[in-house]
Amino acid sequence: MLFFILAAVVYALRINHYTHMFQLNSYKPKVQIKWLINNLGAFIKSSSLLIIALIVGVIGALPFAKAQPLITEIPVILLLSLSIFLNLPKKAKKPLVYTNRVKRLLITCAIVAILVGILAAQFNSSIRAIILTLPLILAPFILLLCNLINKPIELSINRYYINDAKRMLKEHSTLTTIGVTGSYGKTSVKYILGTLLEAKFNVLITPESFNTPLGVTKTVRSSLRATHDIFVCEMGAKNVGDIKEICDIVNPQHGIITSVGPQHLESFKSLDNVKKTKFELADALPVYGKLFLNGEDENIKTVNHPHDAITYGLNPDCDYYADEIKVTSAGTSFMMRHGDEAVPFTVALIGAHNVINIVGAVAICCEMGIELKKLPPFAKKIKAVEHRLQLTRRGKTTVVDDAYNSNPSGSKAALDAISLFQGRKIIVTPGMIELGSVQFEENRKFGENIARVCDFAVLVGKKQAEPIYQGLKDAGFPEECIYIADQLTDGANKAFSLYPDEEKVVLFENDLPDNY
Fold first, then answer.
1. Looking at the DSSP assignment, which residues form a beta bridge with residue 425?
2. Residue 77 Cα to chain centre, angstroms
3. pLDDT tens for residues 203-257?
4. Around Cβ 350, how many Cβ atoms within 10 Å?
5. What is the rounded average pLDDT of the residues 164-191?
6. Which phi and psi (to 5°) does residue 260 adopt?
7. Which residues lie closer than 8 Å to 360 by C-beta, 6 or more apart?
8. Which of 33, 68, 226, 374 has its CA 20 to 30 A from that of 405?
C-alpha cells in the first residue's frame, strides 16, 4: 500500500506542476512541447530518482531476481520518498488557477492514474515498480494525452460560452463596441479610453489582460449590463487569425490599432504576419465604422488598407495630435490639438509614449461626440496601469515598475522616462522574450540603451541576459557597474542596497513568468 501512496503523491505533484506550466503556455500543446525541450535539464533533474527506480524495477524483473521481491520494493519505496522532495512546488509568481478546465484536466489525469494503479496491482513488486514509475516519469506527456482526450469536451463547452456571449451582445442593440489591439500600448489605451469615455457614457472594459476569445467571452457573460453604452474590448494575439476570432464574437463597430512591432515573433514568425493580424480588426469593421491608427508607427504606415482612417500622434500631419509636451518625474503636460481647437492637458503619467496613447483615446472620444474641452478633468483621473511604468516611493528611492512585459519600443520608452529623474539610475531586468530570430540582437541593443541612461545594471539570469551584457560591454559600460543575479529577489535586493545615501530611481523592466 505504501508503494501506491508514494507513487500517487509524486504523480500528483508532477501533474500539478506541468498543468501550471500548461496554463502559462496558454494550453497550447506545441508551445508546451517546445517549453519541455527548452527545459530538458530541469525535467531530467526532477525525474532522476524516478528513472533510477524504473531501472531498479527492470533489474528486479530479471530472472536472477524473481525469487527476491524485496530487492525491488524497498529501494523503490525509498527512491519515491526522496523524489517527493525533488518535485515539491516552488513559490510561483503567478500560481496555478484552478479553473473548471484545469479541474476537468486533473480529473482525467486522476482517472488515468487509477487505471494504471489497478493494472499494477495485478503484478509482483518488480513489474509493479515498472508500471508505476514509468507514468511518473512521463507525467508531462500524460498531461498532453489527457488534454487531447478532453479536447472534444472543451471545444463543446467553449462553443456554448461563446455563443451565449454572442447572444448577449446581439440582444444589447444599443451597445457600441470598440476594439483595441496593437503589439504594445493596447492595455494602456484601453484603460485610458475607459476613463475618458466616462465623460458621457457608461463603459464596460475587458479587465486586466482578458484579451483572448475566452477572456472576452467571460467579461461579456459576467459583466455586461443593459445600462452599458460602450464596450471597450482589448484584443490580444500570438498567431494569425487570433484577432479575427475575437472580432467574430464581439463584432466591433470601431477600432484602434496602437502599434505594430516585433512582439511574439516566436509564434508569428514574421513582422508581415503581425501586420496582417493586427489589421484583422480593421477588416472586421462595418462600412460606417471608424478606424483609428497611430500616425507615429512606421510599421502601421506601410500597411495598405481601404479604410479612411483617423490618425493620431505627435505631429501636425495627424488628425489629432499633441505638442508642447513637458515631461517630469511627477507627470506630463501637453497641448491637445484637433483642427482649430487647442486644449491643455495634464496627466499623472510619465513618458512621451503615454501622450500618444492618450491622444488616441481622446480622438475616439471626440469622434464619439464628446467635446474636446470637456476631457481634461477626466484625463487627470487617469492612473498608471499596474506594472506599466507604475511609480512608487521607498525611502529615497523612486521605484518604476514596468515589469508586466517588455518589448523593444516599450523598453526604450521606459529608459527615456527614467532619464528625466534626478539621482542615480538603476535597472533590474532579465531582458525581452518571444522575439524569435531577432531576440538576441534586440536585447543587445537594449544593453546599449541601458548604458546610455543608467548608472548600474542588474541583469537577472546569466544565460537570459547574455545579449544585454554584450550590449553593455559594446557601449563601454563599466564592468563593476554590472551585477548578474540568479533570481529577481536577489537582483532587487542588490538594486536597493546601492548608493544608500543618494537619491535614486530603480526601474524594473520585465519580469519573466514561471515558465521561463
1. 505
2. 41
3. 999 998 789 999 999 999 999 999 999 999 999 988 899 999 999 999 999 999 9
4. 25
5. 94
6. -135, 120
7. 189, 193, 256, 258, 292, 294, 312, 320
8. 33
Q: Which residues of 325-338 are buried (b: 16+ CB within 10 A; e: fewer)?
A: eebeeebbbbebbb
Q: Residue 16: which of 115, 149, 142 has the closest Cα? A: 142
Backbone φ, ψ for residue 470 (5° rounding): -65, -40
The helix-helix angle for 40-60 and 70-86 (nearest 10°) equals: 170
Residue 468 Cα distances to 59, 407, 430, 459, angstroms? 49, 13, 9, 8
For residue 102, give the nearest of 24, 38, 31 by alpha carbon: 24
The answer to whether the predicted template modeling score (pTM) of the entire model surpasses 0.85 is no
The three-state secondary structure class of 328 is strand
Q: Which CA distances in Å does 117 have to 46, 50, 70, 138? A: 22, 16, 19, 15
d(Cα 482, Cα 413) in Å, to the nearest integer? 21
Question: What is the DSSP pairing of strand 397-402 with strand 482-485?
Answer: unpaired
DSSP sequence for 5-54 = HHHHHHHHHHHHHHHHHHHHTTT-HHHHHHHHHHTHHHHHHHHHHHHHHH
Q: What would the grid cell of residue 282 be?
A: 480593421
pLDDT tens string 278-317: 999 999 999 999 999 999 999 999 998 888 899 999 999 9
* DSSP annotation string for 241-298: THHHHHHHHH--SEEEE----SSSHHHH-SHHHHHHHHTHHHHHS-TT--EEEETT-H
Structural domains in the chain, sorted by start: 2-152 (no CATH), 172-379 (3.40.1190.10), 390-509 (3.90.190.20)
- Residue 366, C-alpha cell as written in the block: 471626440
What is the C-alpha to C-alpha distance for residues 69 and 278, in angstroms, rounded to an integer?
A: 63
